[in-house]
Amino acid sequence: MKISARYQAVFEILSEVLKDENPADNIINEYVRKRKYIGSKDRRFIVDTVWNIIRKRMRLAFEAESLNVRRILLLYLKDEDLDIVADGSEYGLAALNKDEKIWLKNLPEKVYPGYVEAECPCWLYEKINNPMLVQSLNQPAPADLRVNMADRQTVKNRLKGEGLFFSLTPLSPFGLRSAERVNLNNCMTYQEGLVEVQDEASQLAAYLCCVKPDEKIIDYCAGAGGKSLAIAAYNHNEGVIYAHDANWNRMDVIKERAMRLGIRNIKLLHTVEDTDYDCFILDAPCSGSGTWRRSPDAKFRLTPERLSALNNTQSEILETAYRHTKKGGRIVYMTCSILKDENENIVEKFTAKHPDIVFADHAYLWQKRLDMPYPFNEKRFVRFSPLATNTDGFFFCMMEKKTDFKKKS
Known about the structure:
The structure is a single chain. The protein is built from 19 helices and twelve strands. Strands 5, 6, 7, 8, 9, 10, 11 and 12 form an eight-stranded mixed sheet that branches. The chain is 42% helix and 14% strand. The chain has three domains: 3-110, no CATH class; 143-197, Sun protein, domain 3 (Alpha-Beta Plaits, 2-Layer Sandwich); 207-401, Rossmann fold (3-Layer(aba) Sandwich). It is α/β, with parallel strands linked by helices.
């Protein structure tokens, strides 16, 4: 493809992405799927450019004083030879008109407000109140894999033999990390189930649940089954893991993933009726703000109304967990969010309502499970982030339902 045609493709994709109606990943994949004539190098260039512009969206829109897609793209390209990148050819980006040339030539110098510099909608920037954290979530994430029931060094060497270079993750004893994006489609190590894609924070969250094979456990918001599959692997297929999701169709992929990974002890539940679970795991529906490194467009689809609705759901499912967890059992609440509205505020409200629910000592839990110093100050819960742990943003909180608690009359 000519460079101008590449940028026309970028323009067409951005025209859909900036509507803020659907995830950029879905839009990009659908666009490429329908255009099989686009070669791998062209595809890589187009996709990388789209993501780069998304990560600079706030600054480009601020300079353009609008979300006009063409203006944003022209600003992104202003230091290129615009006669080449916008040559007006049949499949290329339209040539600049007179007004556009004058506009680009007379761009004023602008100072970005803090939320623009941090590439975050103003209301979220103020809510998070941590510019460094927000900026860290706008950087590309590394590619993390979880080694599945195999020796980590052996798997690392095998991936190297396939031309894929990974280092050991510093916290998870099962993780491998690549600084660059990797394509696993033709990777035999992946096809044979020796590795699974999973961020290090998520690997650790599953491991910190401390599930024993003889315990009755449920992964209540299982989705695609990441936590269930990890816990099953940690216990080498011993015991039973019940998986449930309000949207049954979301769990369709679990059987296929389990087959590839050699996992045999996950059972899917349509309804949850038992009230004697030893460990009730809630990877709650959330904003996904902790994954902005991988999905920087998601922050623009989140609204205060959507966040409020999520908070209501999070509180409701914690009440469900309370009803179905036996005395002496554990409730594990986790989200891939950095927002206190979805994390601390939710669990503190829950424990205030139920005096028989107490926070676990996460420092003790961490040191016992991982045999390494606890890296956080707060012991009532664990907050992962790109700044603190070089992982996605993730919240983990284990709570215990006391056996000796008596209500006051």
